[in-house]
Task: structure prediction
Amino acid sequence: MKKIFIVLLSLIFIGASFTSVTSIEIKTSSIIGPRESPMPGDLKDGKLPEFPPFPQPAISSHHELYPLTKSDFVVTLIEQLDEELYLSYLEELVAFGPRYTYSKACTDAGNYIYNEFIEMGLETRKHEWNDEDPTVFNVEATLLGSNEESDEIYIICAHYDTVSESPGADDDGSGVAAVMAAAKLMSSYSTEHTVRFVTFSGEEQGLFGSRYYVEEVISKNIAGVLNVDMIGFAEDEEDASYVIVYRDTENPLEWMTEFTTNIAGEYQEYIELEVVPGGSSGGSDHWHFWQAGFSAIFYAEYNFNYNYHSPDDTIENMDIDYAVRNSRLILATLAELAIITELQAPIKPIILSGPAEGKSGKEYTYAASTTDPQGDQIYYLWDWGDDTDSGWIGPYISGVECEESKTWSNRGDYLIKVKAKDDEGHESEWSDPLSASMPKNKSYINRPILNFLQQHPNLFPILQQLLLKL
Ligand SMILES: [Zn+2]
Result:
């Protein structure tokens, strides 16, 4: 028995050492040169559909890029891109199920993205790319640049469709969640140059959505494109410390890889990633931008996800911390390219007063305040920590205190927080929370109940029993 055990153990050991040797070899080769990249999953005969060459060459240019120095705006921006925000979008997307282009789930997901962009206050439109079917569309949201002399447009994009069998958490829910989180956070700022947040459909059938999109924007100055497709899978810590950037190796204007590599270095403490330049790739939506002659890069996870295009491409099989750090890198790159200049939203509010302890059933008043950088009027939203909120209240003049009262009906500990928005809809961060403890509960016996009991004393024990159960 003991012998068998030892033999088994050594077999396992030999197996394990083989696996680790193999995986190290794969990693080394991918650092040195180009590696296999993802491909759309529903291609006819495994080939990208052929499109005619673009009728005119794209002409694009970008402003002079100065040596990078860390910007406080960018630090604040990327610090807000956390797992909670990222998952709030990813979970909604995956909940639609497989989002096969032309299916209802895909259209529903597109409508969801469209509505979210609208709520962020961004100029949003559906780009319908199949004349015969209006349910098939890309979604584009625009943050207009403040520099009226600039015609530069920077694009961050991902595809929201999937193959028919897969919930598409990593492919490409991971990219769409990055685009949506970027849109949400950047919509509170001004940028010098215009930014577009674009999500495509028709990718898995052969990059259709992006092809028709590029046809439409070919005469514009698309100065740089950040395509995000599958950034959320890592098997171990080493995988999770690299990201691959596929680039247009034939384009002499290829400058974006270097730029994003510098961003990873400058903001290393918030991103903790090393950029590994990949080779060329025809496997995602950057392809037609390249074909047209635009500058674009394609971000993808370092260790390719073997669950892709299968029912196992789930959130559970992802590394969300890794996806968030990749999203931060891409967001910081976008913010530095478009030159983020000014916070539009009110500053993060502070809770000024209100009890940290009390009794449930009793009313308490809390006060908060903040200012708006442009001096706009401010609305406040209180989250009472019991799944209720105050709704937006206001307007208040910038800097004036907002008071709001609250009665908790159950005893418990509650985390109160408040956020603000200006009259153009730019939302602030949530305040630091105030913890309120409502341990005691004497309020069930209020004045009208007491009066009632005095008239019906025989009901008192029954009511008491009931209250004890609450
Ligand atoms: Zn994909």
Q: What stands out?
A: The pocket of zinc ion is lined by residues 38, 159, 171-172, 203, 229-230, 284 (CB under 6 Å). The two ends are 59 Å apart (CA to CA). The chain has two domains: 32-342, 350-457. Residues 1-35 have pLDDT under 50 and may be disordered.
